[in-house]
TrEMBL record:
Protein's UniProt keywords contain Transmembrane helix: no
GO molecular function terms attached to this record: ligase activity
Name by which UniProt lists this protein: AMP dependent ligase
Keywords in alphabetical order: Ligase
Gene3D superfamilies, per database record: 3.30.300.30
Length: 80
């Protein structure tokens, strides 16, 4: 996983750039754009806090799917 922060660069642009510069085995599986890279009290990037961000972002689709199903059930909408 590659975390990055940029006002002008998108995840896709960064991935495309890295694919030109790195061997296949060095490509990150996923790139995640964050507003700010979290730092510890010493000013270093906090890997622990980044991993927590990743866990939250990977759980988000499951949460959205659950909410969608709850709304459909409440509205008595039948799919399929």
């Amino acid at each position: 996983v590659l975390y990055f922060s940029s006002e002008t660069l998108s995840s896709q642009e960064l991935s495309d750039f890295l694919k030109c510069k790195l061997d296949d085995k060095h490509w990150p599986d996923r790139t995640i754009k964050v507003d700010n890279l979290p730092t510890n009290p010493h000013g270093k990037i906090s890997k622990r806090m980044l991993s927590q961000l990743f866990e939250k972002s990977s759980q988000m689709p499951k949460t959205l799917d659950s909410l969608k199903l709850m709304f459909l059930k409440e509205l008595k909408v039948v799919l399929g």
